[in-house]
Amino acid sequence: MKFLHPDRDQIRIENVLLALGNPLRLGVVRVLDGGGEHNCGSVLSVLDVTSKSTMTHHWRVLRESGVIWQRPSGRENLVTLRRDDLDARYPGLIDAILTGSMNDGEAWPIVAKAKAGS
Fold first, then answer.
1. In contact, 110 and 117? CB cutoff 8 Å
2. Alpha-carbon distance 23 to 118, whole Å?
3. Which residues pair with 73 in a beta bridge?
4. Domain extents for the chain?
5. Beta bridge partners of 71
6. Which of 21, 30, 75, 76 would staple 114 via disulfide (CB 3.0–4.6 Å)?
7. DSSP secondary structure of 77-93
8. CA-based angle 84:42:110, to the nearest 5?
9. Alpha helices (runs of H) in the chain, residue ranges in sequence order
10. pTM, 2 dp
11. What pLDDT score was predicted for residue 95?
12. Which comes out higher in pLDDT, residue 117 or 37?
């Protein structure tokens, strides 16, 4: 399976903000912000999410908005935050969103769970 990803110059701010406006997807970004490549299952376990079918939609939104790279590896998919591309397009955006979401505390419990697990 080949995944479609926008090139750096095709990443649009409205798509990034839409993708990060969901608490589960924001939690995924917090986990991935620790760096490196992760298999999808390990990200789900940090967030305590068991429904892989629901996550298919979230992976697609994150990938098509340019927030993550996703690639198949055997029977699983590996994901990486496109931090360099996002910082180049929108300097400081990811830092501001992640910091702001942690300051919201109880409003974003899944994000707090992601921080604790990463």
1. no
2. 16
3. 76
4. 8-117
5. 78
6. 30
7. EEEEE-HHHHHHHSTTH
8. 80
9. 13-20, 23-32, 40-47, 52-64, 83-89, 93-103, 109-117
10. 0.85
11. 94
12. 37
Strand, helix or coil for residue 43: helix
Q: Report DSSP state, residue 67.
A: S
Q: Give the C-alpha separation, 61 to 66, whole Å.
A: 9
List the beta bridge partners of residue 79. Answer: 38, 70
Short-list 46, 17, 22, 21, CA closest to 33: 46
Place of tokens 């298999």: 39
Q: Which CATH class is domain 8-117?
A: mainly alpha
> How far is residue 55 from each of residues 60, 63, 85, 91, 102, measured CA to CA in Å?
8, 12, 23, 28, 22
- How does pLDDT run across 12-65, given as a tens digit for each residue? 999 999 999 998 999 999 999 988 999 988 888 888 887 777 888 999 999 999
